[in-house]
Amino acid sequence: MPINEIDLSGLSSAVVPWLALLLSLIGLYSSRKALRLSEAQEERQKPLLVLYQQEGYVRYDLDSSSRYFAFLLSVSNRSDADNAISEVLLRLTYTTSESVEMTVKIPSTEKTERVFEEFNGPLLTVPERVDAHQTVSGWCYFQVKDALLDGCRIERHSIAIIDSHGIEVSVEPIVVQEFSNED
Amino acid sequence: MKIRDILKPRWATAVSGYSNPTPIIATAAIASSGQVGGRLIPLVILDSSEKPALDELIRLHAFLPPGDVRITWGQVKELKDHVVLHVEFLRPMETEVHLEFEIGKYGGLVDQIFSTRVLYVMTGRSGDRFVDKHDDDRISVEIPDTGFFKVWDEMFYKNTIKQMRQKGLGRQEAKRAAREYIEQWRNFDNIRV
User: Fold this and answer.
1) Burial of A85: CB neighbours in 10 Å, binned 0-12, 13-18, 19+
2) Sign of torsion over alpha carbons A30, A31, A34, A39
3) ipTM, 2 decimals?
4) To 5 degrees, how large is the angle CA B133–CA B135–CA B141?
């Protein structure tokens, strides 16, 4: 059959549907890829603080009948969204004289100059802003009255931070060294 | 150990899956000038023999700042004349108490809790009385309404009518007497020292 006698309408009606199918498959692939990218982006917006404890010390103070804990912490924000630390807690797990295990949450306190006068590093204040993909670091202090642990045996410590969304991140177990002046 | 489901009243959060309630040994009401405006604050002595964490929680409050709690009011499906107060302590220690109040016995106490929004909690053992333990440590727990008061008000009123009728009053008379009783009870609640 000569070319000029080819039925173009018949040809187009055979080819166009396949072309349309191909285009829609390409569109489907593109939109699924866009959806995955969007979901990954959304995931990166979720709060994600990571806590790391660099150093930990305890000092016993007879004047105030207390023990004081000092921890050097770094907090990294691995999210695309800004965040903030709203609270820092020390969790002490101890066994009472009746052999029952308890866990108490101690809030952070201001630095007691007299007790940790040798510590001159930055303070991790609360609340503390942690911008996206940034890290903050500083010392946290906790005071525990000796009477609170009277007759009890400390089993473990852990540090927890709570962000502005109420999400808690903790580090455990941690080693706490006794801090004393070396004469 | 039977797990009781708790109905979800319209204004209260549903809770479920709790086992036996914490036994209430005794109740009282105390007033101190300078505390909650000198009002009479309801107090419960709870049996902590199966819950040593409660003793420890009260002890810890002497050394630490005020803690946090999460409160849930509710009803019990199997026990129509009871209300439930679930107190989840979050700080300084995590523990919980589940209190079931029979309205006929503890209705006045529950109404006081709604009125003052505070409950003193002490611990003890079976047979203990407040007069013997008034110097012991106790904690005050803030108990907000959570929206349950409307349900409570209706339950208290109906239960009071039922009690009046059991005493021989007619239907209308019992309703009037119940209203008067509740009104006088709440006036008594407003006494200050």
Assistant:
1) buried
2) negative
3) 0.74
4) 90
The pTM (predicted TM-score) of the whole model is 0.79
CA distances from A34 to A24, A26, A28, A45 (A): 15, 12, 10, 17
Q: Which residues contact B153 (CB under 8 A, 6 or more apart)?
A: none
- The number of helix segments (H) and strand segments (E) in chain B equals 5, 9
Per DSSP, the three-state class of B105 is: helix
CA closest to A146 among chain B residues: B63
How far apart CA B133 and CA B127 sit, in angstroms, is 11
Q: Which 3 state secondary structure label does DSSP give B39?
A: strand
What are the two backbone dihedrals, phi and then psi, of residue A117, each rounded to the nearest 5 degrees? -65, -25
Contact B52 A107 (CB under 8 A): no
Q: Collect the ranges in chain A with pLDDT lower than 70.
A: 1-7, 111-114, 173-174, 180-183
State the DSSP string of A10-78: HHHHHHHHHHHHHHHHHHHHHHHHHHHHHHHHHHHTS--EEEEEEEEEEEEETTTTEEEEEEEEEEEE-
Put simply, the answer to whether B65 touches A98 (Cβ < 8 Å) is: no
Under a CB-based contact definition with an 8 Å cutoff, are residues A168 and A160 in contact? yes
Q: Which residue of A has its CA nearest to B52?
A: A100
Nearest-5° Cα angle at B170, B169 to B171: 120
